């Protein structure tokens, strides 16, 4: 096992939820903690979000919702990613709100609710233009009619309608208003059937930060919870959000080498002069992107160093220069205060910071900061 260490500043998540609550205005906040809270640890991040005032928690997978219940969370939880294999009985028994995108899933949910003699709370998901989850506007009336019939029979309560935006991270993109128009049209289909919804929700992190007119009753920030705004803050202050994840390892070897020394597999980096190399205990098995070689940086003793040559399975090298003060055992900060950010890594390797924190965090053990 490498020396890679992931620490999570739960106070930062609590702080960020507070910022997002202020921006949400009259809308409640659903803290999206799917994918192990974007690599930040499901249970700990959820508790921190609740402490910040999140009225709801949102997860993609049903198992995540059940894990939150098993951990003692008693608030509203919403889950949405499944087909007819959905464990509806367990979710209804655990008092979890369910998303419904098709007649087939609705039938499974109704059957489970009938067996339990307990109504399921459902949110109809509408595809307003993302082309991903959700019922199309064409098929929406049939789904709403079936849900209304099930509600009249006491098997479900249609408490919500929701959708997801395709281009919210590009404020002003024409699809945002188009999807909002489609969402409002979908809400009319519910109102025409005299169904009163508890919550209507459309806004993700970017929309929460930029479009107060689209907050409706509930906003669903995800990446912003963890201090990584998906859009640039015009004020250059990251909207007051604080990054929650830090990734660190150790320098395990320091050695002097001559000019012309090839470094790591393939010798993609060759020392231009006599210098000192530092070996860091972390590699692609730990989430360090193999593509980071020659691109991403780490911080050691207040200076940043670019990864020299290829990232290996459990180690990589940095060129410390000919007159270094770095010693074996020094901390190497890959992401965190004083070092690069997840966004820096994303920019270096051509991806997004969502992937960076999910990749580093994954399901690895995390420590409190």
Would you write up a description of this structure?
The strands form 3 sheets. Strands 1, 10, 13, 14, 15, 16, 17 and 18 form an 8-stranded mixed β-sheet that branches. The protein starts with a strand and ends with a strand. It is elongated and about 80 Å long. Helices cover 31% and strands 22% of the residues. A hairpin with a 7-residue loop joins strand 15 (303-308) and strand 16. The model has no long low-confidence stretch (mean pLDDT 97). 49% of the residues are buried. It is α/β, with parallel strands linked by helices and 369 residues long. The chain has helices at residues 10-24, 34-38, 42-51, 62-70, 88-93, 103-116, 140-152, 174-191, 205-210, 342-349, 353-361, and strands at 5-8, 28-32, 56-59, 76-79, 97-100, 120-125, 156-162, 199-201, 218-219, 245-257, 262-263, 269-270, 275-280, 297-300, 303-308, 316-319, 331-335, 367-368. It has 2 domains: 10-227, Alanine racemase (TIM Barrel), CATH 3.20.20; 245-368, Lyase, Ornithine Decarboxylase, Chain A, domain 1, CATH 2.40.37.10. Helix 1 packs across helix 3 (42-51) and helix 10 (342-349) packs across helix 11 (353-361). The chain contains 11 helices and 18 strands.
Comma- or semicolon-separated keywords:
8-stranded mixed sheet; 369 residues; Lyase, Ornithine Decarboxylase, Chain A, domain 1; 2 domains; single chain; 8-stranded parallel sheet; elongated; 11 helices; alpha/beta; TIM Barrel
Question: Quick gist of this model?
Answer:
This protein is α/β, with parallel strands linked by helices and 369 residues long.
């Amino acid at each position: 096992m490498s020396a890679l260490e992931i620490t999570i500043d739960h106070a930062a998540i609590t702080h960020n939820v507070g910022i997002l609550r202020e921006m949400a205005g009259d809308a409640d906040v659903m803290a999206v903690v799917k994918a192990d809270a974007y690599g930040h640890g499901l249970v700990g991040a959820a508790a921190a979000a609740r402490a910040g005032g999140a009225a709801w928690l949102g997860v993609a997978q049903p198992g995540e919702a059940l894990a939150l219940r098993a951990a003692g969370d008693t608030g509203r939880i919403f889950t949405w990613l499944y087909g007819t294999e959905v464990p509806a009985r367990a979710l209804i028994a655990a008092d979890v709100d369910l998303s419904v995108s098709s007649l087939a899933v609705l039938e499974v949910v109704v059957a489970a609710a009938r067996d339990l003699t307990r109504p399921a709370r459902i949110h109809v998901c509408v595809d307003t233009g993302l082309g991903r989850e959700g019922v199309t506007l064409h098929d929406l009336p049939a789904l709403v009619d079936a849900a209304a019939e099930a509600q009249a029979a006491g098997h479900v309560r249609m408490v919500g309608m929701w959708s997801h935006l395709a281009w919210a991270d590009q404020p002003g993109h024409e699809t945002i208003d188009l999807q909002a128009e489609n969402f409002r049209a979908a809400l009319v289909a519910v109102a025409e059937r005299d169904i009163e919804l508890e919550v209507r929700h459309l806004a993700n992190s970017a929309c929460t930060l930029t479009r107060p007119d689209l907050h409706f009753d509930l906003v669903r920030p995800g990446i912003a919870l963890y201090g990584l705004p998906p859009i640039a803050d015009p004020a250059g202050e990251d909207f007051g959000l604080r990054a929650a994840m830090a990734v660190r390892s150790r320098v395990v070897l320091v050695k002097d080498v001559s000019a012309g020394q090839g470094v790591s597999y393939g010798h993609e980096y060759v020392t231009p002069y006599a210098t000192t190399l530092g070996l860091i205990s972390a590699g692609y098995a730990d989430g360090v992107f193999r593509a980071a070689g020659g691109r991403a940086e780490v911080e050691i003793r207040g200076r940043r160093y670019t990864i020299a040559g290829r990232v290996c399975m459990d180690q990589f090298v940095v060129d410390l220069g000919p007159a270094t003060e770095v010693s074996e055992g020094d901390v190497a900060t890959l992401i965190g205060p004083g070092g690069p950010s997840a966004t820096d890594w994303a920019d270096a390797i051509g991806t997004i910071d969502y992937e960076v924190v999910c990749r580093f965090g994954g399901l690895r053990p995390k420590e409190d900061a």
